[in-house]
Protein 1
Amino acid sequence: MKADKRLIVAIDVHSMDKVQQLVETLGDSVNYYKVGMELFYSVGSQVITYLRAQGKDVFLDLKLHDIPNTVGQGLATLTGLGVSMLNVHASGGPAMMKAGAEAVRKKADEMGIERPKLIAVTVLTSINSAEWSALGYDLDLSKQVVHLAKLAQQAGLDGVVASPQEAEAIRAICGDEFVIVTPGIRPSGAAINDQSRIATPAGALKNGAHQLVIGRPITAAENPRQAVQAILEEMRDKA
Ligand code: C5P
């Protein structure tokens, strides 16, 4: 089955050997990979060079969260790596998000490359309502997610990372063009691990997700390629 741009596979491993093994196993069934801090801090930018050389798109998920100038400078450097998508925490605030979006735009223009999408993390999908109250926030978790998504849109970001359960509410407020990327995807029967607000691949797309980030249900499967095929089939029904 052909690769589907809506599937982003999270490679949460620590070595280039493991990356290459996974990318070779999945072959042309996957064209889009997510590199997170676990992998990037272990092997550095060589993983991006490798994936780009294989013709793969990369979502570099480093979830930046710092003062506006620092985030802007950091994102400009990451833009130079030739990735397709980057992200920041929306809770860093509107000024930080604006500085980030501006820095990415400027760097991509200078280099004459396609501008990577910049999206915001609203609330991590591992946060459940007990964790949420432990943090001391008053506003309802799902209302906060939508509020942060709106702030991100106003700051000029392309979209958000959000739980599949909040995708519908975000889509209703932010419109169809605003990109919604959802982790926390578990095909039926798969282990939940540490995720809380989960949905199946078809359920997330039905709720309005544009792209799905899926890690362990594929990378820890006995047969990762078969796991991808099953997920792609489920997604195809929701094309
Ligand atoms: O293995 P699993 O499918 O749970 O992987 C989900 C991936 O998405 C992980 O790399 C995780 O860091 C990332 N992610 C997440 N929740 C967010 C943002 C990113 O689970 N809000």
Protein 2
Amino acid sequence: MTAPPATAGAPVPRHLAVIMDGNGRWAQRRRRPRAIGHRAGARAVNRVIDFCLERGIGALTLFAFSSENWGRPEEEVGALMKLFLNALEREVDELDRRGVRVRFIGERGPFAEPIRARMAAAEAQTLRNERLHLAIAASYGGRQDIAAAARALAVEVAAGRLRPEQVDEAAVGARMALADLPSPDLFIRTGGDHRVSNFLLWQLAYTELWFTETLWPDVDAGVLQQALDDYAGRERRFGLTSAQIGAETTP
Ligand code: IPE
Ligand code: IPE
Ligand code: MG
């Protein structure tokens, strides 16, 4: 009898959040324009989606473009927008066929109308899918997300629909992006930097963090499995003691 894989029976994250970093360096190492790295990065997006579908991970949030990335050179932003539009045109039918629900988090306003229209169409087309909830963070910032929730609460208080003392963690959380999903269990950042770069600030409060030197375009199932194996060996205590956690899981 062959030994079961090391991960047999190990908990799989319900929600994986990824900062896909390192496209530019991947291209620079090949003496190619940064846009080539972004194109290679788009192929790695398909690999991480395949991986989640295979492993039964129910939610995947990908940081595709931060609110700060608008400040990059015009040529690079233009190339990214073109890629984005191409991906929306090419991939959505296949995602839909595979049971993926697609949504976008972040500010829509700064995007050109054809992109906004495609985003809305992709969301509408895949709305009823349940196998994998895919959230693409585009023109997204964690602080912006918190500020938007605060603004929504202020509007409700000003209108008399909510009392100030009702503004608690649950009320804020309910108005943040991804409020309908469990918080990310596992966060992966590729590209070697150890920072959150204004990704899901609120939602990552108790997420397990995993970093790799691998540049995003080089990511494959092997790298993703390393992250899952590491995650499976961690003890999530949520502020409690180890003994308490043990007591909770013992029948
Ligand atoms: C991540 O790769 C993709 C985006 C931010 C859009 P980068 O473009 O940041 O790649 P590096 O970090 O410069 O290598
Ligand atoms: C974070 O990467 C944003 C995305 C991957 C979309 P950046 O490359 O923008 O982050 P910094 O600038 O290194 O913090
Ligand atoms: Mg980067």
